[in-house]
C-alpha cells in the first residue's frame, strides 16, 4: 500500500514548533510518531510543538529523554516521548515496557526511531528532519497506514 508524503522547509524554531502544534491537534489515542534525523536536526523541538498541540501548556517540560529513555506528559491524552539514541537495539526499549505504551491509549513519539524498527507498530507517521543551514530544516512526513494518510490530508 502506498502512503502519502508531504515535504516542507522550516526556516525557524517557531515554525517547526508551529507545525508540531498543528500535528499534535490531529492526533488520537494509539497514534505513533517516528522521528528520524541527526543530532540537532530538530526532533525534540518538534516534540515540543506536538506536545503543545496535545494540550500541554508548559513546553519547558519537554526535554530529550536520552538517559531516562522515556518521558510521560499529561495532555488531553497521555504522551510517551521516547529517545532511542543510546540504544544498541530494540530490546532495551521493550524491556522498559514500550509495547504497552506504544499500543496503549496514548500517543507515542519516538526519537531515533530508525534505530528501533522492531518497537514500532505496523502503522505510524514517520517524520524525517534534515538540517540544511543554521536555521533551515527540511521536514518530510510520510504515512504508513490509512489513519495517517488522513492526518497528512489534514495537514495540507
Ligand atoms: N528551523 C528549525 N527547526 C528546529 N530547530 C532549529 C531550527 N533552526 C535552528 N534550530 C536549532 O536546532 C537545534 C535542534 O535541536 P533538537 O530539537 O534538540 O534536535 P534533536 O532532538 O534532533 O537532536 C536547536 O538548537 C534549535 O534551536
Ligand atoms: Mg532530541
The SS-based structural class is: alpha/beta
Number of domains: 1
Judging from the principal axes of the Cα atoms, what is the shape? globular
CATH architecture: 3-Layer(aba) Sandwich
Report how far the terminal alpha carbons are from each other: 21 Å
Beta content comes to 25-35%
Largest sheet: 7 strands, mixed
Based on the model shown, name its key terms.
Rossmann fold, binds adenosine-5'-diphosphate, globular, binds magnesium ion, seven-stranded mixed beta sheet, 28% helix, alpha/beta, 156 residues
How would you portray this structure in words?
This protein is α/β, with parallel strands linked by helices. It has a single domain (5-155), classed as Rossmann fold (3-Layer(aba) Sandwich), CATH 3.40.50. It contains 5 helices and 7 strands; from the N terminus they run βαβαββααβββα. The two termini are 21 Å apart. The structure holds adenosine-5'-diphosphate and magnesium ion (MG). Residues 43-44, 64, 111 line the site of magnesium ion.
Q: Which helices and strands, and how do they pair?
A:
Blueprint: E1 5-10, H1 13-25, E2 32-36, H2 43-53, E3 70-74, E4 78-83, H3 91-95, H4 98-102, E5 107-111, E6 124-131, E7 137-144, H5 146-155
Bound molecules: adenosine-5'-diphosphate and magnesium ion.
Briefly say what this structure is.
With 156 residues, the protein is α/β, with parallel strands linked by helices. The protein has helices at residues 13-25, 43-53, 91-95, 98-102, 146-155, and strands at 5-10, 32-36, 70-74, 78-83, 107-111, 124-131, 137-144. The protein has one domain: P-loop containing nucleotide triphosphate hydrolases (Rossmann fold), CATH 3.40.50.300.
